[in-house]
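Dock S-adenosyl-L-homocysteine; give full complex structure.
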Amino acid sequence: MRRNHLRAEYRAPTVSPLPRGADMVRAMIDTPHIALPPHDWPAFPPGLVWLVGAGPGEPGLLTLEALHALQQADVIVHDALVNTRILDWRRPGTRLEYAGKRGGKPSAKQRDISLRLIELSRQGQRVLRLKGGDPFVFGRGGEEAQTLVRAGVPFRVTPGITAGIGGLAHAGIPVTHRDVNHTVTFLTGHDQTGLTPTEINWEALAKGSPVIVMYMAIKHLPRIADELMAAGRNAAESVAIVSNATLPQMRVLETTLGAAAVDAERHGMEAPAIVCLGSVVEMRKSIDWLGQLRGEPPRDLDPLQRGGAAEAS
Ligand code: SAH
C-alpha cells in the first residue's frame, strides 16, 4: 500500500525555490520529477555543499528536505550504505560519485572525500553529500563539516534517521521504555584504525547505561561482549542483532550477551548491523509489529512483568 502511495507521488513537477535570471533557465531544464508539498524549502545555490542523512535504508524514511536537496543537486557524492533506490529519485542529469567507504579503512580516504567536496564546490556545483543514517552519528559528517569550514566552503546539514534508533524501531525495539531505561548509550565498535575504541570506559558504560546500542560492532563482538561481562553485565542479558534494518532483507537475531558472538557467527549475521543490549530487547516479544502484520501473534504481551529479562537465557 505504502509503495503504491509513493508511486502516486510521481506527478506534475514543481520548482522551488522560485528561480531568477540565469537560474530560471537552469531550473526549467532541471525540473524535479517528484512533487514536494509547498513549503519554504531552503535554497541550494551553486557552490553549496549539503550534508544530508539518507536514513537507514528504506527509501520512505528519507526526509522531505533530503528529497528536496536530491532534486536540486548537480552532483551527489554518496556512501556505500545509501540505498540506490533513493538515488533514483534524483532529477535527470544529476551526476553520481561513489565515495564508498566502510568502517575500518585508513582515514586518508576520508581526506580525499573532503577534498573532493571542496573541489566540486569551487567548480560551482551544487554538491549533495549523501550519507547513510544521520550524517553526524558515526558518519564522519562532523569531520567533513570541519574541513569545509576551514576551506571557507558554505554548507548546510540535514539530519537523517539513524540506524540505531530507526533500525531498531523496525525490529520492534524501542530504544527507551519507561519500565527499563532513562538513559541510552550509542557506541561504535570501530575507531579510525578499525580496532575497538580504546578510550571506552567499560566499567562506567556497563554500570551507567541499561541500554547500549552498538554500531559497527559485529567484527569485534567477541571482545566487546567480554569487556561488558568483565565490567559486570550479566551474560543472560538480552541482545538483539538487527542486520539490514528497514530493508526487505532485514534479519533480527535475539540472543544473550554471553552467546551473542557465537550466535552472530553461527547465523551468519553480517554488516550493516546494529547490536542492542538491554531489557528493551524483551519488548520485541510484544511489539514486533512487522511480524504481527505478517500474521505472527505477539509472543508475550507484557514481557518485563513476567520476568522476561531474567528468562532470556
Ligand atoms: N551514520 C549512520 C551510521 C554509519 S556507521 C547512521 O546514523 O545510521 C555504519 C554502521 O551503521 C553499520 O556498520 C551499522 O552498524 C549501522 N547501520 C547503518 N545502516 C544500517 C542498517 N540498515 N541496518 C543495520 N545497521 C545499520
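Observed: The pocket of S-adenosyl-L-homocysteine is lined by residues 56-57, 81, 103, 131-134, 137-139, 162-163, 167, 215-216, 242-247, 271-274 (CB under 6 Å).
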